[in-house]
Amino acid sequence: MSPAASPSPKGREQDSSALVLAAPDWNHLDTLGAGGELPPILWPVGGSHLAGLWMDHAVRTGCRRVVLYCPDRPAAVREELQGGAYWSLKLEVVPAPAPADAGAQPVRGLPCGEERVAPDSPGGLLKWWMDVNLEWLRARDGGSVQVDTQAEPGGWIGPRVTISPGAVLRPPYWVGAGSFVGPGCEIGPGALVGPGCLLLEDVRVRRAMILQGTFAGAHLELEEKILRGSALFDIRRGCRAELEDDFIASALKRPAQRVGWGERFLAALLFIAGRLLAAACGPAVRKRVLLPGGRDAVLATRSRGPLLARRADWLAAAAAGRLKLVGILPRSGLPHALPAETRALVENTLPGVFSLADVHGCHSDESPEELAHALYQAAIPSSDALVLKQLPRLAFLNPGP
Amino acid sequence: MKESEIIAYWSQASSPAGRLRLRLRAARKRWMWVVVTGTARLAKRIFDIAVSLCALILLLPVFALTALAIRLEGPGPVFFGQQRVGYRGRPFRMWKFRSMVPNADALKDKLLDKNEMKGGVTFKMKNDPRVTKVGRFIRKYSIDELPQFWNVLVGDMSIVGPRPPVPREVELYSPEDRQRLLAKPGLTCFWQVGGRSEIDFSGQVRLDIAYIQSSSLWTDIKLLLKTIPAVLLGKGAM
């Protein structure tokens, strides 16, 4: 990120209480998926993220307004920063690169931090991220009141952390809130363990990061690595490995694919209505569909009537929590030619009764255009809101034979 | 740990039975961890719901009498909903019994130079002219705060946590002060039982952060039990 505020050649007056920031567009570098679905400015830096640290800087410098030029996933940034509510700032996220005359300065990770050369490869991006975290750790001020306790110079421990007997901590290190460090672990130097992590015995973390909510199994040694759930990123080699054995490392919480009670209740109501209408919709055809986690289900679909009646059986499954009310269409398989990551994305997304494909006129998973809609909906969960808005129309939509 | 022991540990993974053993052990550790941490969070919410529900039911006569007294004193609403800042800066409406004249917020600007709170971030005055006669009594014994049990029941607040600030105060917070927004606001906290408005702003922030650092259900219960005598004695209220 870099501050983009400077007097323009045309003499335009700058608002003295505004901080103008330009976020980098490094989406093309994140081919390893290090940050998951988040842009680099929302990747964890210690207990916060880059955008949050710049918001803190804005508060310290007395700014009341922040303009953030954000070419990469501005919607995610807007949702995370909540309009600057936590900082009592008026935050404006502009989904575009900074204007050419904004006087862009060299890329800086942290406010008041070192100027760094922008990364030019996926491995460079990982290294940049690790360096920014280590810089954050070294720059932590022991003089101010913090939620994290400074156990020793350079060593920080968050609230409700358990350090087992025999664990060795060498500064600089940071252990986030609620984490458990098992006996015989060696944390540091240069170790960042995120909040809510579980480290079993004899885990060694040196110049490495373990991100929030990660389980690290016994006798794991991490040096120049970043561990996020079961994904291991090697900073030196610039590569990623997916650990299949969950006793080595895994995410503590499975991705939220649970169907809420409100959704189930609505599905139950729609099921009652659909069942009444289904009586006049002809016989149902049963088909086996795939669900995440290697499970499957048999769903009956009628060939006539509104979607509410055709998919009454699906609504029963949604009321039972096996399907979502809004999600990608249930499918019995995927094309073999699909890349592995894309296949995994669709296979791990819980299907629903009404989908984005229905909004666009595709009502069967066998339709060639349906897969594109399914991929979009699986990749951008917020698109479910669009389907939800059109639910009354979709429920009574009759797509014909 | 000796290298031979580490090799023996990982060698288990070479056989299906050994892998299963390792997976079951890891799964057991993970499950216990999730249960312990999840239970702690759930226990706090259950505690909040139970206490607030009991309080709302048992204190109904007090609610009725207070409402009657406020109505008899003069025109104006019985309840006062004030915008406050909650967890991570999210605003919510905090309910209280009205203890000031109906246009109190508008009159506050004229009284800012008489602020007796050290630090200048929060506003307090011992003899605030905006406070009504009934208001003086209900504020002394914190009866005006009782409607906040409703905020606790709906999840905006907790029984124990940092007191929720007003938006105008939060605008003046430094990044360090804002850390008190990292916990759900509460009816009572460390500084409520330790002298309430006698503690200056930086002291309040330090105590709130100390609460966040050490929060547990047992701490909450102890604080709640200490709050009752502090409130009944009217200690530190304005």
Task: Describe the protein.
The complex is a heterodimer of chains A (401) and B (238). Chain A has 401 residues and is an alpha/beta fold. Helices cover 25% and strands 23% of the residues of chain A. Chain A has 11 helices and 27 strands. Chain A has helices at 50-60, 74-81, 122-139, 261-278, 307-310, 312-319, 340-347, 356-359, 370-379, 384-389, 391-395; strands at residues 2-3, 18-22, 44-45, 48-49, 65-69, 90-94, 149-152, 155-157, 162-163, 168-169, 173-175, 180-181, 186-187, 191-193, 198-199, 204-206, 208-210, 214-216, 221-223, 225-228, 231-234, 239-242, 249-251, 284-290, 296-302, 324-326, 352-354. Chain A has an 8-stranded mixed sheet with strand order 7-8-11-14-17-20-21-22, covered by helices on one side. Chain A has a 5-stranded mixed sheet with strand order 9-12-15-18-23, with no helix packed on it. In chain A, helix 4 runs antiparallel to helix 6. Residues 5-15 of chain A have low confidence and may be disordered. Chain B has helices at residues 3-11, 16-58, 60-73, 104-108, 133-140, 148-154, 167-170, 190-193, 201-214, 217-232, and strands at 79-85, 91-97, 158-160, 186-188. In chain B, strand 1 (79-85) and strand 2 (91-97) form a beta hairpin. The model of chain B has no long low-confidence stretch (mean pLDDT 84). With 238 residues, chain B is mainly alpha-helical. Chain B is built from 10 helices and 4 strands, in the order H-H-H-E-E-H-H-H-E-H-E-H-H-H. In chain B, helix 2 runs antiparallel to helix 6 and helix 3 (60-73) packs antiparallel against helix 5.
Strand content of chain B: 5-15%
Q: Between the first and last Cα atoms of chain B, what is the distance in angstroms?
A: 61 Å
Question: How many angstroms separate the termini of chain A?
Answer: 54 Å
Order of strands, main sheet of chain B, comes to 1-2
